[in-house]
Specification:
heterotrimer; A alpha+beta; B alpha+beta; C alpha+beta; B: alpha+beta; Ubiquitin-like (UB roll); DNA polymerase, domain 1; 2 domains; five-stranded mixed sheet; 30% helix; C: alpha+beta; Aldehyde Oxidoreductase, domain 4; Aldehyde Oxidoreductase, domain 3; 3 domains; seven-stranded mixed sheet; six-stranded mixed sheet; 25% strand; globular; binds flavin-adenine dinucleotide; binds FE2/S2 (inorganic) cluster
Chain lengths: 291, 177, 780
C-alpha cells in the first residue's frame, strides 16, 4: 500500500504554513508526525492534494513552563512527554500518557499537536488535556485564537480547527498546591488504541477534601469525552472509596462507546467505571504527595 | 490472450517531486524522488539497500525501522523528502571497518534471530535503546522493543542479545561504535 | 558425542546463516530486483459474495505507469482462471463472474512500479451485485442454504466431505457404561500465520522460454510440479527459487492466485513481474488456520480411569478446500486426539463445509490439525478431572500411557514411537513448584483473588510421512539429501526442504559433521532452488529433521561405506578391517592406523582404487518408517484482575521432549517461538467475520500479534526420549510449543475462574470474555 501523489510544501514559518492552507482550502493538510496521516494515505482513506510539512518550522517543538502554563509546542514529539522532568514532576498525567501512546518508535515521530488535532477518539492526549482544562493556540489567516480543550472535539475527526488553521501550542494551566493527576489506559497490547483510557486531575486541600476535579475519557465515544457530571460531583467531597465509586458511575454514564473487537458496550462502560475509580485513586495519591 | 496495455507516461507536475540530500550510512547522497516516496522505498528501491524490510502497511511491525539523526523511526511512515538534510542509518551501516556492531554480535551469539526478517529493524531499535540507556533491565528492553514485532523468536533471546551487547559495550573502551 | 570443534550433534553451534541476516544481506523475494521489472498489484473484492456485473478498466489504464490489467475473463481465455488446490478442490485464480469472499483477488494491475500499480488499483471501477453470503458454517448446512459452488455441476449443498475414524458403536457403548461422561463444545477460531514477511514472487521468462519464479514457498519442488500441471509448461522449463524466507509457519505452502497472475503477467508482457502482498491482502486472502467447531464427549470410571472419547467436528473451509493436508487425511492428523492417554474406544468424525470466507486450513506452526486435537483433549482432561474432584496433574499421571507401553498403538490407528509422559510432567511440576502453587491458590481463593494453574501434557505427531499413507497430490512425502565431498574435504549438501528460520544451514551441517567427521565450517547447505536441489516435499509440519535430516544421515553413511573401501586401499588392508571410530576410518584395533574423511575425499579424486568410480557423493530419498511423536508438559500460572478480566501470565514452564537434540540453542529458540505462537491465539489473535462477511481484522491494527511486553518470559527444560526409528533418534521440534501451549493457558484461566463454575472459555481469552464469565455468575 502506497500513498497517492500530492504536492509537498515545507514552510519555514507558521504564517507561511497557514497561507498555504488558506490558499488550498480543503485540499491541503498539515503533515506533522505523519503517524496517523501517512497511514491513512497509504490506505487511501485520506488523499490530500497538498501536504504542508510543519516539521521544519523553527521553535515549534518545546516543553516549557511559565508562571501560568505548561506550554507544549505543536511539533513536540510525544516521546518527549515522558522524558521531560517538568512534565514528570508536575504533570504526571501527561508522562503517564506519554508512555502509553502507540509504541516507542511511533512516539518518536508522532507530535503532541497531531495527537491533539487529529480528532481520533482513540488518541490518548485529548482525554488528558480535557481533564487538565488545557487550551489550544490556533493560528489562522485572520490571526491567533485560543480555544479551550472542553468543547474542542465535535465529532470523530472533526475539531474546532478549520481547514485553513493550524494548532501551534498546547497550554496546560499550571497546577496549584494539592494537585494530582494520572492517566490509565486499558489496551489489548502495546500499539493498540485504548479499550478505555481515563485521565484524571484532582486538587485536594490539607484536610483531604477534594476542591475540584477533571476527568477525561479516551475511545469510549465518537470523540474524547469530558465527564462533566463526574468531575463536578467530586468538588467539595471528602475522599473516600464510596465517593470515588459514585464518580466512577457518573463517568460511566457519560461514556458512549461502540462495540468492536475489544468488546460490547456494557463491558466497555463497566471498564470506564473501573478505570475511573482506579485513576482517581492514583491521582489522589499523587495529590497527597505519593507517587 | 489479449490484455489491454498502454504506454508509460512520465509527466511530473511541480512540487510532486524534489531533490534531496541525505547522508545514508555515512555516504552523502543526492537524489530526486517523488514527494510520496516513502523512506523505506527510497532505501530499498533507489539505493538498493534491501536490508530494511516491510512487514505491514500501518506502522505496526517495525521491520522498517531505521535511525534518522540517531532516532529510530518507522521508515514506512516517513517520507523520503522528510529526510532531506538528515543522516540516515540502516542495518547496512552497523558494521564499521569490517567490525560488527556489538548489537549484531549479540544477536548472533544469543540466537536473537531466526528468519531474520524483523532483525534489521529490531537491531536498529536496540542500537538506539542502548545509546539512551546503556544498562537496561529486562523490562526496559521489552518495552523498548515493543514497537518491533517478531514472529519467530518469542523475544527471549532478543532480550538476551541486547543484554549481551550492553555488556560488551560497557566493557569496550569509550569512543567505540 | 562430538567434541565442540567438529560442531556435531548436541552442540550449540552459532548459526551459519546469521552472517548475512545480521548484515542486512539476506536475500528475500522482495530483494530480488531485475532490469525492466514490473510490479503487480491486486484489486480485491469489497463484498463477501457478489456477482461481477462489469469491470471498467479505462480509468486504471489511464493511470501513468499502468501497463496492463488482467481479469478473470483474460485468464479464462487461457484456461487459467481456475487452479487445483492441494486437496484436489478448485480455486479461482481470478473470478469471471462471482466473488466468493471479501478480499478475494478480482483484477491484477501491472505497472512500472508499485506506486503506479497502487494508483491503478485505486482507480479501478467494478460494478457488483451483492448477494447474501453464507457465513455461519452451521447454517451453511441448512437445507435451504444457498449453494455456493454453483460452478460444480450437480452440487446441491455446501457439504464438502465427511471423514470418520474409530469404532462408532463401541465408543457409544463404552460411553454409556462410563461412570462419568462430560460433553463440551470447543471452538478453535480462525487465525492467520502472519509471518512478518508477507507472500510474494518475482516471475521471469528468459529468452529460451524458461520460467524462473522466486517465490516465498516452503515447498519449492511441489510448487514446480503444480505449476507444470496448471500451466502446461514442461517441468524442466520451470525453475522455482525459494530464497530467504521471512517466516512460513504453513502460510507459504499453498499456491496463491497472485503467484499465478504474476506468471501470466510475465509471460504476456515479456518483463519480469514482481508481486508482493500488502498486509491486508495477506490477512484477508491467504490461507487461514484452524476454524474447527468441536463437540466432544469423554468418559471415565468413577475412580478416574479414562474410558472413551467421541468427537464431532465441523470444519469451516471457506469457499474451497485449500487445506494443506496429506491427501488421505482431509482432517489432517486430527485423530491424534486421544493424546497422551490409552483410550480403548474412540470415534472421531469431521464434516467440512463451504462458506463465503477465504480458503485455507493450513498449519499455523502445527503439524496438520494437531493443535485442534491437543486443545480438545487437554481441555477435556481438565474438565473431567474437575468433575471427578481430582487434581488435574494427578489425573494425568494416573492415566498416561506408561513408558513401557511404547511403541504404543493408539486406538485411532497411530503407532506412537516413544514417550515418557510422566517424566516430563513431573519435571515441570518440580520446576514450577506445583505443590507450592496449589497451596498459594488456596490462600488466594480465601481472599477472593483469582489465580490459576493450567497443565497441558501434549503428544505431537510430526515428520510426514511414510509413503504408504502420506502423499500430497499423489507425490509421496519422502524427503531428500544430496551430499558431495570435494577433493579438499569440504562438503556441499543440498536438500529438498526449505528453511524459513529454523536454521537448516546449521543443523543439517551438524548432522553431517557428526556423520562424516568434517567440521561444520567446511559444510555448506543449500536448499530452495529446484534446478539444483534434489526433489523433496519441503519444510512444514516439523518434518525436516525427521525426513531430510534422516536422509542426510543415510547419505553420509552411504559415503562412509564407499569411504571405507578407499581408506582400506590407502591403508593397504581389506575393507572388512576398517571401522569408523572417533569420526575416522581406522584399522580395526589399531588406533594409530587411520584416515580422516578428508584424506579419503582427496583420494577419491586422486588415488581411488582401480575399478571404483571416482568421486565421493551420495543421495538419499528417505521414506520414514513411521511418524515421530514429540511430547511435553507445560504449566502456566496466571493471575486475573477480577474487575477488568485482564490476565497476567506469571510463569510458564515448558518441558519438551523432541528426542535427540541436534543444537540445543536452536531447539530452545524454536520452543520460545512456538510458545509465543501458542500464546498469541490463546490471548489475542482471531479473524472474525460479521454477518455480512466483512473481515474484522484486516491489518495489524486489529490482528494482534503480541509484542515483547505481552509475551511471557518463557522457562524451558528438556527430557530426552529418542525416537527408536529415526537414524539419530531426533523427532522435530518446531511446532510442539504452539500445539501444546494453548490448553495450558485455558486450563489455567478456567482453573482461576473455578469459583464461578466456568468449564470452558474459547480462545482468544480476551478481557471481555473473562469479565463476562465473572459477571454472568453471581460472585461467590
Ligand atoms: C501503530 C500505531 C499505533 C498508534 N497507537 C496510538 C495510541 O495508542 N494512542 C494515540 O494517541 N495515538 C496512537 N497512534 C497515532 C499516533 O499517536 C499519531 O502520531 C497521532 O495520532 C497523530 O500525530 P502526528 O503528529 O503523527 O500527526 P499526523 O499524522 O501528521 O496528522 C494527523 C492529523 O492531524 C492534523 N494535524 C497535525 N498537526 C496539526 C496541527 N499542528 N494543527 C492542525 N492540524 C494538525 C493533520 O493534518 C492530520 O489530519 C498510533 C499510530 C500508529 C502508527
Ligand atoms: S513496515 Fe511495518 S511498521 Fe513499517
Ligand atoms: S526472526 Fe523471524 S520475525 Fe523475527
Amino acid at each position: 500500500m502506497y500513498p497517492p501523489n500530492f504536492e509537498y510544501y515545507v514552510p519555514s514559518t507558521v504564517e507561511e504554513a497557514v497561507g498555504l492552507l488558506d490558499q488550498h482550502q480543503g485540499d491541503a493538510k498539515i503533515l506533522a508526525g505523519g503517524q496517523s496521516l501517512i497511514a491513512m494515505m497509504k490506505l487511501r482513506l485520506a488523499q490530500p492534494a497538498i501536504l504542508v510539512d510543519i516539521n521544519r518550522i523553527p521553535n515549534l517543538a518545546y516543553v516549557r513552563e511559565d508562571d501560568k502554563f505548561l506550554r507544549i509546542g505543536a511539533t513536540t514529539r510525544t516521546a518527549e512527554l515522558s522524558r521531560s522532568t517538568i512534565v514528570q514532576a508536575r504533570y504526571p498525567i501527561l508522562s503517564d500518557a506519554g508512555r502509553e501512546i502507540a509504541d516507542p518508535i511511533v512516539r518518536n515521530r508522532g507530535t503532541v499537536g497531531g495527537n491533539v488535532s487529529h480528532g481520533d477518539p482513540g488518541n490518548d492526549l485529548p482525554a488528558c488535556l480535557l481533564a487538565m482544562g488545557a487550551e489550544f493556540e490556533i493560528h489562522g489567516p485572520k490571526g491567533i485564537r485560543t480555544l479551550p480543550a472542553r468543547g474542542f472535539y465535535q465529532d470523530t475527526f472533526v475539531t474546532s480547527v478549520a481547514t485553513n488553521e493550524m494548532m501551534t501550542e498546547i497550554r496546560v494551566p499550571r497546577p496549584g498546591a494539592g494537585t494530582g493527576s494520572a492517566y490509565s489506559k486499558m489496551e489489548r497490547k502495546v500499539g493498540d488504541f485504548a479499550t478505555v483510557g481515563v485521565g484524571a486531575r484532582v486538587v485536594v486541600d490539607s484536610s483531604g477534601k477534594i476542591l475540584n476535579a477533571g476527568i477525561g475519557l479516551t475511545n469510549v465515544g465518537p470523540t474524547a469525552i469530558y465527564a462533566t457530571a463526574a468531575s463536578d460531583f467530586l468538588a467539595g467531597k471528602t475522599d473516600s472509596d464510596a465517593v470515588l465509586a459514585q464518580a466512577a458511575v457518573l463517568a460511566r454514564d457519560a461514556s458512549a462507546p461502540s462495540p468492536d473487537n475489544r468488546g460490547p458496550v456494557d463491558f466497555k462502560k463497566d471498564m470506564v467505571r473501573i478505570w475511573t475509580r482506579r485513576t482517581l485513586r492514583k491521582a489522589l495519591d499523587r495529590a497527597k504527595g505519593g507517587k | 490472450m489479449a490484455i489491454d496495455a498502454v504506454e508509460v507516461q512520465s509527466a511530473m507536475p511541480n512540487h510532486r517531486s524534489k531533490t534531496i540530500h541525505v547522508t545514508v550510512n555515512g555516504v552523502p547522497r543526492e537524489s530526486h524522488v517523488e514527494a510520496r516516496t516513502l523512506l523505506v522505498s527510497y532505501l530499498r528501491e533507489h539505493l538498493k539497500l534491501t536490508g530494511t524490510h516491510i512487514g505491514c502497511d500501518t506502522g505496526h511491525c517495525g521491520a522498517c525501522t531505521v535511525l534518522v539523526d540517531g532516532t529510530p523511526v518507522k521508515s514506512c511512515m516517513f517520507l523520503a523528502v522528510q529526510s532531506d538534510g538528515s543522516e540516515v542509518r540502516s542495518v547496512e551501516g552497523l558494521e564499521t571497518g569490517g567490525k560488527l556492531h556489538p548489537v549484531q554480535e549479540g544477536f548472533h551469539k544469543e540466537h536473537g534471530l531466526q528468519c531474520g526478517y524483523c532483525t534489521p529493524g529490531m537491531m536498529m531499535t536496540s542500537v538506539a535503546l542502548l545509546a539512551a540507556n546503556p544498562n537496561p533491565t529486562e523490562d526496559e528492553i521489552r518495552r523498548g522493543i515493543s514497537g518491533n514485532l517478531c514472529r519467530c523468536t518469542g523475544y527471549v533471546n532478543i532480550v538476551k542479545a541486547i543484554q549481551s551487547a550492553a555488556k560488551e559495550m560497557a566493557a569496550a573502551p569509550k569512543g567505540g561504535p | 558425542m562430538a567434541t565442540a570443534p567438529l560442531g556435531g550433534i548436541g552442540v550449540s553451534v552459532p548459526r551459519k546463516e546469521d552472517a548475512r541476516f545480521i548484515r542486512g544481506k539476506g536475500n528475500y523475494v522482495d530483494d530480488v530486483q531485475l532490469p525492466g521489472m514490473l510490479f503487480l498489484d491486486i484489486v480485491r473484492s469489497p463484498y463477501a459474495y457478489a456477482k461481477i456485473l462489469a469491470i471498467h478498466k479505462e480509468k486504471t489504464l489511464a493511470v501513468p505507469g499502468v501497463l496492463a490489467v488482467i481479469t478473470g475473463k483474460d485468464l479464462e481465455a487461457a484456461k487459467l482462471s481456475w487452479m487445483p488446490t492441494l486437496m484436489s478442490d478448485t480455486q479461482m485464480v481470478l473470478p469471471t463472474d462471482t466473488v466468493m469472499f471479501q478480499g478475494q483477488e478480482v483484477v491484477g494491475v501491472v505497472a512500472t512500479d508499485r506506486y503506479a500499480a497502487a494508483d491503478g488499483v485505486a482507480a479501478m471501477e467494478i460494478d457488483y451485485e451483492p448477494m447474501t453470503p453464507v457465513i455461519d458454517p452451521f447454517k451453511a448446512l441448512d437445507p435451504g442454504a444457498p449453494v455456493l459452488r454453483t460452478d460444480k455441476p450437480g452440487r446441491k449443498d455446501n457439504h464438502i466431505w465427511h471423514w470418520e475414524v474409530g469404532d462408532k458403536d463401541g465408543t457409544a457403548q463404552a460411553l454409556k457404561e462410563s461412570d462419568v461422561v462430560i460433553k463440551e463444545k470447543i471452538y478453535i477460531p480462525r487465525i492467520h500465520v502472519s509471518s512478518i514477511e508477507t507472500c510474494g514472487c518475482v516471475a521471469q521468462v528468459d529468452s529460451m522460454g524458461k520460467l524462473t519464479v522466486w517465490l516465498t514457498t516452503q515447498a519449492p519442488h511441489a510448487i514446480r510440479t503444480v505449476f507444470a500441471l496448471v500451466s502446461g509448461l514442461p517441468e524442466n522449463q520451470i525453475r522455482i527459487i525459494s530464497p530467504d524466507i521471512g517466516g512460513g509457519f504453513g502460510g507459504k505452502v499453498p499456491v496463491y492466485p497472485g503467484y499465478v497472475i504474476a506468471v501470466v503477467a510475465a509471460l504476456t508482457t515479456g518483463h519480469p513481474v514482481k508481486f508482493i502482498e500488502d498486509r491486508t491482502g495477506n490477512l484477508t486472502s491467504d490461507s487461514f488456520a484452524r476454524d474447527y467447531h468441536i463437540e466432544a464427549e469423554i468418559g471415565a470410571t468413577k475412580d478416574g480411569r479414562l474410558t472413551a472419547l467421541r468427537v464431532k467436528t465441523l470444519a469451516d473451509h471457506g469457499y474451497t478446500d485449500a487445506a494443506a493436508n496429506p491427501s488421505k487425511f482431509p482432517a489432517g492428523m486430527f485423530h491424534v486426539i486421544t493424546g497422551s492417554y490409552p483410550f480403548k474406544k474412540a470415534f472421531v468424525e469431521v464434516d467440512a463445509v463451504y462458506t463465503n470466507k477465504p480458503p485455507g486450513g493450513i498449519a499455523y506452526r502445527c503439524s496438520f490439525r494437531v493443535t485442534e486435537a491437543v486443545h480438545a483433549i487437554e481441555r477435556l482432561i481438565d474438565i473431567l478431572a474437575h468433575q471427578l474432584k481430582m487434581d488435574p496433574a494427578e489425573f494425568r499421571l494416573k492415566n498416561f500411557i506408561p513408558p513401557e507401553a511404547f511403541p504404543f498403538p493408539s486406538v485411532l490407528g497411530w503407532t506412537y514411537d516413544s514417550g515418557n509422559y510422566a517424566g516430563a510432567l513431573k519435571k515441570a511440576m518440580e520446576i514450577i513448584d506445583y505443590a507450592g502453587l496449589r497451596k498459594e491458590q488456596v490462600e488466594k481463593r480465601k481472599r477472593g483473588e483469582l489465580m490459576g494453574i493450567g497443565i497441558s501434557s501434549f503428544t505431537e505427531i510430526v515428520g510426514a510421512g511414510p509413503s504408504k499413507d502420506f502423499d500430497i497430490l499423489g507425490i509421496k512425502m519422502f524427503d531428500s539429501a544430496e551430499v558431495r565431498i570435494h577433493p579438499t574435504g569440504k562438503v556441499l549438501a543440498r536438500f529438498g526442504t526449505k528453511s524459513q528460520g529454523q536454521g537448516h544451514e546449521t543443523t543439517y551441517a551438524q548432522i553431517l559433521a557428526e556423520e562424516l567427521g568434517i567440521p561444520v565450517e567446511g559444510i555448506s547447505v543449500e536448499e530452495g532452488d529446484t534446478d539444483t536441489a534434489p526433489y523433496g516435499l519441503g519444510t512444514y509440519a516439523s518434518r525436516s529433521t525427521p525426513t531430510a535430516g534422516a536422509a542426510a544421515v543415510i547419505a553420509a553413511r552411504k559415503i562412509r561405506e564407499k569411504g571405507a573401501k578407499i581408506a582400506a586401499h590407502l591403508l593397504e588392508v581389506s575393507p572388512d578391517d576398517i571401522e569408523w571410530v572417533d569420526h575416522k576410518f581406522q584399522v580395526k584395533g589399531v588406533p594409530g592406523k587411520s584416515k580422516t574423511m578428508a584424506d579419503v575425499a582427496f583420494a577419491a579424486y586422486t588415488n581411488h582404487p582401480q575399478g571404483m568410480e571416482a568421486g565421493l557423493e551420495a543421495v538419499d530419498y528417505y521414506d520414514p518408517p513411521n511418524m515421530t511423536y514429540p511430547f511435553g508438559s507445560y504449566i502456566a500460572v496466571v493471575d486475573i484482575d477480577k474487575e477488568t478480566g485482564q490476565i497476567k501470565t506469571r510463569r510458564f514452564v515448558a518441558v519438551d521432549d523432541c528426542g535427540t537434540i541436534i543444537n540445543p540453542m536452536i531447539v530452545d529458540g524454536q520452543i520460545h517461538g512456538g510458545l509465543t505462537m501458542g500464546f498469541a491465539p490463546s490471548m489475542l489473535e482471531e479473524i472474525q467475520y460479521d454477518a455480512d462477511g466483512n473481515n474484522k481484522a484486516t491489518s495489524f491494527l486489529e490482528y494482534l500479534l503480541p509484542t515483547a511486553v505481552e509475551t511471557p518470559h518463557w522457562e524451558t527444560a528438556k527430557t530426552t526420549t529418542p525416537s527408536p526409528h529415526h537414524p539419530i533418534g531426533a523427532k522435530g521440534v518446531g511446532e510442539s510449543a504452539t500445539v501444546g501451549a494453548p490448553p495450558a493457558f485455558v486450563n489455567a484461566v478456567v482453573d482461576a475462574l473455578e469459583p464461578y463454575g466456568v468449564t470452558n472459555i474459547d480462545i482468544p481469552l480476551s478481557s471481555y470474555k473473562i469479565w463476562q464469565a465473572i459477571h454472568s455468575k453471581d460472585p461467590p
